[in-house]
Amino acid sequence: MAVLSQCNSQGLTIIAWAYAVANVNDPLLFNTDFVDVCQANVDRFVPEALYQLHQWQLWQDELKSGINLPPALRDKCRQAFVSQSYQTSTLQDDVVSVLSSIGMPLEEEFLTPSGYRLDMKVGIEVDGPSHFIIGEPTGSTILKRRQVNEMDDMCILSVPYWDWDKLGTDRTKKQMYLRCKLGWIAEQKKRFPLSDSTTSLHFFRQF
User: What is the tens place of the pLDDT at every residue in 153-189?
Assistant: First the structure.
């Protein structure tokens, strides 16, 4: 408790988020004392800190640790997380256009129970440059993929920007590429049937 009380609000959430990304639990650090310190800092958390704290709470839910933020703070973190603004990229618009050209139905986005912004069950994630550092997924990308899979029980597949860029302007090659991706998704649906019969896709935003 003494060590935690020396951390400012930003330090608390950065530590919590980093452990969540690494998926390495430390019950001596993340316990009721941590929750108490978070509550004591409730009015000092900036929006980004609330986003990270929401993802930390999702991680605790993944672990079934029984450690929970107070309901009011948990709700505040979730509300901040789901209220983040987003903007589609040229890359994503191109992928959507090609999917439409092969007859794939697309719908408006919705929020999963965990708070991530998606379109539908079973999805393709359009991963632009901001989702990677030196070719490796960022912490946010790692955490989102894992938590959507674990908490929302959704099958996702990445379309990395370097794959898409290699296809250039050849629309036929892009259609073939996506058909291959869709074939993989169809196979997963056969192996792990969903509760509904939709064949549509999600497009995941990076948070």
Answer: 877 778 999 999 999 999 999 999 998 887 765 565 5
* Single-letter amino acid, residue 103: G
The pLDDT tens digits for 137-154 are 999 999 988 998 899 887
Q: Which two tokens stand for residue 95?
A: 């992928």
**Residues near 136 by beta carbon (within 8 Å), at least 6 away in sequence:** none
Which residues, other chains included, contact 167 with Cβ-Cβ below 8 Å and sequence gap of 6+?
173, 174, 177
Q: How far is CA 108 from CA 36, 91, 111, 120, 203, in A?
A: 39, 18, 10, 8, 10
**Shared domain check, 110 and 72:** no
**What count of Cα atoms within 13 Å lies in the side-chain half-sphere of residue 127?**
22
Residue-number span of the structural domain to which 75 is assigned: 2-82
55 and 20 co-located in one domain: yes
Angstrom CA distances, 24 to 15, 50, 56, 59, 80, stand at 12, 20, 12, 10, 25
Tokens of 187: 């196979």
Consecutive H or E run containing 95? helix 90-101
Does this model's pTM top 0.90? My answer is no
pLDDT score of 74:
98
| Residues 101, 187 within the same domain | yes
